[in-house]
Design brief:
Length: 439
């Protein structure tokens, strides 16, 4: 069992401190608020949270949880510290790092007087780069020591929900952390072992970003459900019933199927249906802010790809994929066709490899080229052979994923700019001739 100090006895800190103590760890809670310190030392919860009163009474009585404002005492008597202070919005909406920075300085000062190795683990919600840009410099300057060598640093975000915080602590939906050093990484791994949840060990910035992605995703879901509810009500329908039915679809609607960063959505359904729902809402006088933003953001993703092509400087671009998704020749509202049309209009020479669309033309299929109303000479631009496309292009744009093209395209990226909107190989990241749209 470890000895752990928890800085900040707010909603996160107090639950963590109590649960760590229940797990058998020796915990010292640190805060600047004398009321909270007294409450804990009296065996009382400083916040209202299901089950917390009893838990604090139990662990304080057992002598495994104490509270203090004495930072040096806490650092000297523990091997690791969790920072759980608040990060309220700054006036311009950016993350407020004043408390985190302050507590890092306090801990750093105490570390300057401690010889033994100590891990500092930030749990507060902080934007990517905050550990490296604010926490570590504060700790280093106050301690006169080097992070990752003389003391450990980790970022381990908390995902608990108030009102079910203790339950969430023991049954988390997500565990992710980054650590600068092996000792801190091992400490956090050991702490989470035994929980029925995969442990994701990543770099500090990725862990910071996952926390914001999680909270923003929750916010988007709430807003989406509310907007659907508002539109449904304006049509005389029960939005909660509609959403309950939608949420029963684990296979597509609630799956990770559409949760992969890449290119714009398109096809015969999504664009027209988002437009139609937006118009329906407008006709009822119901605002549809999120639907408006969806249309706007999707258009911006096409512009982003256009900018990638422009940045490559290529005057001849070979498209791999032109249909709205791989495995079909359907071109209706394909964002790739739209992108190609915009480039053609700017004078870029565009050649296209798409086995499904090619096959439709080659077999004189009456529906060949179906849905394309943006590239008049599409058939003439189709190329049967991928090597020919690569050989004649100044840049390759990978729009659709075709398994049997991957090794050829990856090799091409060694000599030719490859602009990837689909991520043909999971381990590829932007660099050299290769550019991924969101990786
Ligand atoms: N509340 C939640 O449900 C939740 C869930 C996950 C993550 N978070 C994140 O965790 C962090 C803490 O949130 P919270 O709701 O627990 O905050 P909170 O405001 O309830 O508690 C913060 C505590 O830190 C103390 N503090 C401030 N400066 C200090 C210092 N120098 N030394 C010691 N203590 C100090 C304050 O007195 C306060 O008790 C935030 O970054 C928040 O975004 C919150």
């Amino acid at each position: 069992m470890a000895r752990i100090s928890v800085f900040g006895i707010g909603y996160v800190g107090v639950v963590s401190a109590a649960c760590l103590a229940r797990d058998g760890h020796q915990v010292i809670a640190v805060d600047v608020d004398p009321g909270k310190i007294k409450a804990i030392n009296d065996g009382l919860s400083p916040i209202v949270e299901n089950g917390l009163d009893a838990l604090i009474a139990e662990v304080v009585a057992a002598g495994r949880l104490t509270a203090t404002n004495d930072v040096q005492h806490a650092i000297d008597n523990t091997e690791a510290s969790f920072i759980c202070v608040g990060t309220p919005s700054a006036p311009d909406g950016s993350v407020g790092l004043t408390y985190v920075e302050g507590v890092c300085r306090n801990i750093g000062t105490a570390l300057s007087r401690k010889a033994a190795f100590h891990s500092v683990v930030i749990r507060s919600t902080i934007v990517p780069g905050s550990c490296e840009g604010t926490c570590i410099p504060s700790l280093e300057s106050a301690s006169g020591k080097k992070a990752g060598r003389d003391f450990g640093v980790g970022y381990y975000p908390e995902f608990l929900r108030e009102s079910t915080a203790i339950e969430d602590y023991y049954d988390p939906g997500l565990i992710v952390f980054g650590a600068m050093d092996q000792a801190t990484g091992q400490f956090l791994t050991a702490l989470n072992e035994g929980l029925n949840c995969k442990i994701h060990v990543v770099d500090l910035r990725t862990a910071e970003m996952v926390k914001y992605t999680s909270n923003t995703w929750r916010a988007v879901k709430v807003t989406f459900a509310n907007e659907i509810g508002n539109i449904a009500k304006s049509c005389g329908l029960d939005g909660q019933t509609v959403m309950e039915i939608l949420c029963s679809d684990d296979k597509v609607a609630m799956s990770k199927y559409f949760m992969r960063p890449g290119f714009a959505f398109g096809g015969s359904c999504l664009p027209k249906d988002v437009r139609a729902l937006r118009q329906l809402a407008a006709s009822k006088g119901t605002p549809a802010h999120l639907l408006n933003a969806v249309v706007e953001a999707n258009e911006a993703q096409i512009q982003r790809a256009e900018a990638m092509v422009e940045a490559s400087g290529a005057s001849k671009v070979g498209f791999v994929g032109i249909s709205f998704k791989p495995g079909t020749d359907d071109l209706r509202e394909s964002p790739l066709a739209e992108l190609a049309a915009r480039l053609i209009a700017k004078g870029v020479e565009v050649g296209i490899y798409d086995p499904y669309v090619y096959e439709a033309y080659a077999s004189n299929n009456s529906t060949a080229g179906r849905g394309n109303d943006v590239i008049p000479d599409l058939k003439d631009r189709m190329v049967e052979n991928l090597d020919h496309l690569i050989g004649s292009a100044g840049a390759i744009l990978v729009g659709n994923f075709y398994k049997d093209t991957v090794s050829t395209l990856a090799k091409a990226a060694e000599t030719t700019p490859v602009l990837d909107l689909t991520r043909m190989k999971r381990d590829l990241v932007s660099g050299g001739q290769y550019q991924g749209i969101c990786w």
